Amino acid sequence: MPTTHLLYLHGFRSSPLSTKARLMAARVARAHPRVTWWCPQLPPSPREAGALIEHGIQAWPPGTMAVVGSSLGGFYASWVAERWACKAVLLNPAVDPARDLAKYIGEHTSWHDPAERFFFKAGYVDELRQLAVTGLAQPQNYLAIIAKGDEVLDWREMTGRYPGACIKLLDGSDHAISDFAGHMDEVFSFLNLQT
Predict the structure, then answer these.
(1) What sign results for the dihedral spanned by CA atoms 100, 92, 48, 16?
(2) C-alpha–C-alpha distance, residues 164 and 134, integer Å
(3) Using one digit for the tens of pLDDT, what is the confidence trace for 31-74?
(4) What's the whole-model pTM score?
(5) What is the CATH number of the domain that holds 161?
(6) What ranges in 44-194 are assigned the alpha helix state H?
(7) Strands (E), 61-156
(8) d(Cα 194, Cα 37) in Å, to the nearest integer?
């Protein structure tokens, strides 16, 4: 069954204005105009982010929806994929954001709009723990693109978190997967979007 609904989840301090989100949105609009595309601005609270996602996709057909997530968005995408048994593409996914983001409690700016500020609260660490998934019910539903050159996350930990999934390991690249345009054909082939 072709994918009819596609959700894109951005990472920490990111937004729907990220390069990868914009590249995906443009290609969906151009080549798959019948696909429902949604890339929400996620709130800093993981609990609120989860509620926003749930509300936004509640009417979507689980059998023909898919999710793409980058970094922290990859963590959320794993949660979506396990709850709705849908396909997921993970781009340098955060494996243990409760651990990693505990040192980022405080005020931050958005990458794409430095005038936009938000506060990452200590309580958000527990909210992240509550969304963590352990194990994959259907590893074949996952494609993970992981860069050995990621300067933020450890590629060994990322690959170890997704046993049985289809993993594309990049020898270089970086956390943002700056060469993402070169991997989009593989992403779209895996997602099998309706035309």
Answers:
(1) positive
(2) 14
(3) 999 999 999 999 999 999 999 999 999 999 989 999 999 999 99
(4) 0.97
(5) 3.40.50.1820
(6) 46-57, 72-84, 97-100, 123-131, 155-161, 184-191
(7) 65-70, 87-91, 106-109, 117-120, 142-147
(8) 12
H helices present in the chain, as ranges:
19-31, 46-57, 72-84, 97-100, 123-131, 155-161, 184-191
Would you state the structure tokens that stand for residue 191, as one six-digit string?
């997602």
What tokens appear for 126 in the block? 């527990």
Q: Give the residue numbers spanning the domain of 30.
A: 5-191
**Residue located via tokens 């700056």:** 178
Q: Can you tell me the distance from the alpha carbon of 178 to that of 19, in angstroms, rounded to the nearest whole number?
A: 8
> Which of the four pLDDT bands, split at 50, 70 and 90, describes residue 113?
confident
Packing angle between helix 19-31 and helix 184-191, nearest 10 degrees?
60
Please give the Cα distance from 160 to 171 (Å, whole number): 16
Tokens of 88: 């997921």
Q: How many domains does the chain have?
A: 1
Structure tokens at 132: 């963590």
